[in-house]
Predict the 3D structure of the following.
Amino acid sequence: MVAAVHTHAKLKVEQAAGSAGAYLTGVDLSKTLDGEEVAGIRKALLDHLVVALPDQTMSLDDLERLTDQLGGRDVTPFVKPLPDRPYVIRILKEPHEKLNFANAWHTDLSYLPAPPSFTLLYCLEAPPQGGDTIWANQYMAYDTLSKGLRETLLGLDAVHSAGMAYGDGGYLDGVKHLMSTPIEPSKEARREEIHPAVIAHAETGRPALYLNPVYTTRIAGWTNAESQSLLGHLYKHSVNENFTWRLKWAKGTLAIWDNRSTQHFAMNDYHGFRREMVRTSVKGSVPKRAVG
Ligand code: SIN
């Protein structure tokens, strides 16, 4: 579905769905973007949460330069970066592999004190079908809760940790030998960080639900059992189909998404085919509590 079309000088923005997503054309990412182009991409990201720029020919230098223009590179812990590229990771599934990376709803690196504002993912090879990524709008997730639950959540904090996924003995430690994406489990992954359950987006100020099943472990001050019943309800609600947008990848597509207002999920429905992506993260800020 293609809805409203907006243009910023050369940049063309076509909204892709009602909940999130826009296609951006009219810029060449193999060149250094001017201030107006960068501002146009930022505005599209704030308006649409996820943007896809098809048919780009980008080198790793181009990807790093755009990452810097959007706010500066940040590291991705617990995944080995590319040689001499400490800020770039490769996400790869070979035809013989059965497991893929990020096959669960999550918000990137929410276990960090200052999680990344944006993630950039560039497609080097896409399967002929399958391997889509799905995003869910977390402003909508918050806005569609009852008034009573919204008010309760505004007063809660949640504990986040990379331990379940990347801790030594964690899920990925057990299966990393089956995956080409180079996972580096660590006991450091068990470190805990506390963030508000509902954040005020650092740029739009809008309240967004900030909980995800991969990295959120419990509600701060609650037992695990108490936490899981509320979190279970919220995890299901937060990825309601009506809040989502799904991108079909092709070689040369760059997607950029806002981690402060979305969760995402990488489909694993392309056994027998290769999918290769490179990813960078843009430095973010400490999440702030939303108020009423
Ligand atoms: C990720 O979560 O960064 C990976 C998403 C994908 O491979 O589609």
